[in-house]
Amino acid sequence: MDSKKIIHLIDDDSSIQNSLTVTLRDYGYTVEGFTDPRDFLKKFKPSECAEVIILDLKMPKMSGLKLQTHLLFDQIKQP
Question: How far is CA 57 from its chain centroid?
Fold first, then answer.
């Protein structure tokens, strides 16, 4: 990963995602957005995640809390 500040943004509401993305980019962050937490999990292992992840708590296919639990559990299992 390069030295740019990267934030992963997972939110099923595209208007919220777009607003946050524009604001965060204005502050110099690189934002990688996902509308479905399962797509995020397919692309990243916990060790590859950005230092900051912004999660929507209520999403139809997987809640933000379930995604957070999944990431923490997988990180603990890694050697």
Answer: 12
Q: In this structure, are strands 52-55 and 6-10 parallel, antiparallel, or unpaired?
A: parallel
Decide: 28 and 5 in contact? Cβ < 8 Å.
Answer: yes
CA dihedral 74, 56, 10, 17 (to 10 degrees): -170
DSSP 2-65: -SS-EEEEE-S-HHHHHHHHHHHHHTT-EEEEESSHHHHHHH--GGGS-SEEEE-S--SSS-HH
pLDDT in tens, 2-59: 556 889 999 999 999 999 999 999 999 999 999 988 898 888 776 677 788 899 888 8
> Which residues on neighbouring strands pair with residue 53, listed in sequence order?
8
Residue that the structure tokens 């929507």 belong to:
56
pTM equals 0.76
